[in-house]
Each structure stands twice: as C-alpha cells, then as structure tokens.
Design goal:
seven-stranded mixed sheet; SAM_O-MeTrfase; about 260 residues; methyltransferase; alpha/beta; 7 strands; SAM-dependent_MTases_sf; Rossmann fold; transferase; single chain
C-alpha cells in the first residue's frame, strides 16, 4: 500500500446510490428537469452530509486514520469504501457507552476505524479484540492505533475469523460487531450465540445488512444474496430479537430474546 491523493468514495450505500441515480436523471433532463425530480435528488444527496454535520466530531486520531485509509492505494478486494466512517463510528461509540460495555469483539476490522471509535468509548480497563484476516491491513491498523491512547485497549487477532472465534470460545463480550465476509455472517453469529461469546444482556451489531439495496431490488450478487439469506434467517430465528437500522449500508442490532 502506497500513499496517493485521496479520491472521492464511490457510492456504496442505498442513499448514496440513489443520490447518484437521481443526479444522473437531473443531468440528462437538463434545464427543464422536473422540480420534483430535482427535490428528490437534493433530499437524497443532502442526507449524509447533514448527518455528518450534526454528529459529534471524531477524534484527531480517527480523522487521521480515515485520511490515511482514503489515500492508500488498495488492491484486490480491499477498498477505501470498506471504512465505517464518522457517523457509524460515533453510533458504535455511543452504543458502547450506553450499554456500559467493558469487553468488545469485532469480527472484521479493516483499517480499524470502528475498532478505535469503540475503544475510545471503553473504560480505562476495557478491552477490544479485533479479528482481521489480512496481516498487512492489521499492521496498517496497529500503526494508526499507536496515535491514540485508546489504541492500547485493542488486541488484534490476525487470521481467519472463524479460527479466532474458536480460540475465544467461552470469553464473554458485552458488544460484538460483525463486519467481515458476508457469506460467513450466519456462522459467526451462531458461534457468538452458542460459543459463550455473548455476555448476558449483550448486543450484537451486524454491518452492511442493507448491502447497497440488493436484497430488495432483485439484483443478484454473491454478497447481496448472502445478506438477503442472513436477514431472512435472523428474522425467523426464535433465539433473538433484532432491528435493522438504515444507517449507512445498514446496521442490524441483535440481542437474545427475553
């Protein structure tokens, strides 16, 4: 990974994809674009910037981590759009504080934005264990963590997430954040629920559960199909109760049924 000028993130959430589609329609319509179409475009395009403006600011360490991630030259399946970002990071940090979490597990770390955001909200003796498959990405994240006092609360497990979860069986976490390979989501959740990884009253957060709108628009991709199947499975699972929050690319909050 080498530094490069940061490029704008491409649209990868239902809202940003919708905004781009509407902007294309307005552009094609030209000066005679229907006023309602222009208003629809402006509603969609302005939502994320408005959320960002009215969410508590990120720490300087998180701002720097985001800048480094966006300027890195990613290859293969890695891309800057995998970054959780400001609003989702603050949401997760607020959730840590509201639940009084002391131990957090993250399944799928990438460059560590969400990990550091949650670690900053942990108490001094709190711990976050983050699982990351790619050793180079894990090293990138560790280097970013070193810029923050909260970085010492993060322990990174490098390698397949399923292997890390097996090693952690019996270690209870108050909050679990899942943001790894989409086909593995169901298995990860089963291990968390059945392997003693979720503390009593604990919460599981699963990212990308709207997956660019693919689960309901009918477009077929491997990730879209995996998320659609996962969402249906959770909906039908009597062990849990859940709510799908339309934050960024979708975030499902799950806890054991009472």
């Amino acid at each position: 990974m080498t530094g490069a000028p940061a490029r704008p993130a491409r649209p990868v959430t239902p809202t940003t994809i919708l905004a781009e589609l509407l902007d294309d329609l307005v552009t094609r319509a030209g000066p005679g674009a229907d006023a309602d179409l222009v208003r629809a475009r402006d509603l969609a395009a302005g939502l994320d910037p408005y959320l960002d403006e009215h969410t508590s600011p990120a720490s300087s360490a998180l701002v720097e981590l985001e800048a480094r991630t966006r300027s890195a030259a990613w290859t293969g399946t890695l891309e800057q759009e995998m970054l959780s970002g400001h609003v989702e990071g603050r949401f997760l940090a607020l959730l840590v504080g509201m639940t009084g979490a002391r131990r957090v597990l993250e399944v799928g770390m990438f460059t560590g934005y969400s990990a550091l955001a949650m670690a900053e909200a942990l108490p001094e003796d709190g711990e976050l264990v983050a699982c990351e498959l790619d050793a180079d990405v894990a090293a990138f994240a560790r280097d970013c963590f070193a810029a923050s006092p909260a970085g010492r609360r993060i322990r990174v497990e490098v390698g397949p997430a399923a292997d890390a979860l097996e090693r952690l069986r019996g270690t209870a976490f108050d909050l679990v954040f899942v943001d790894a390979d989409k086909a593995g989501y169901a298995g990860y959740l089963d291990t968390v629920l059945d392997g003693g990884l979720l503390a009593p009253g604990g919460v599981v957060c699963v990212d990308n559960t709207l997956m660019q709108g693919l689960p309901w628009t009918g477009d077929r991709t491997a990730n879209g199909d995996a998320i659609a199947a996962f969402n249906r499975r959770i909906t039908d699972d009597p062990r849990v109760e859940q709510v799908l929050v339309p934050l960024r690319d979708g975030l499902t909050l799950i806890r054991r049924s009472a």
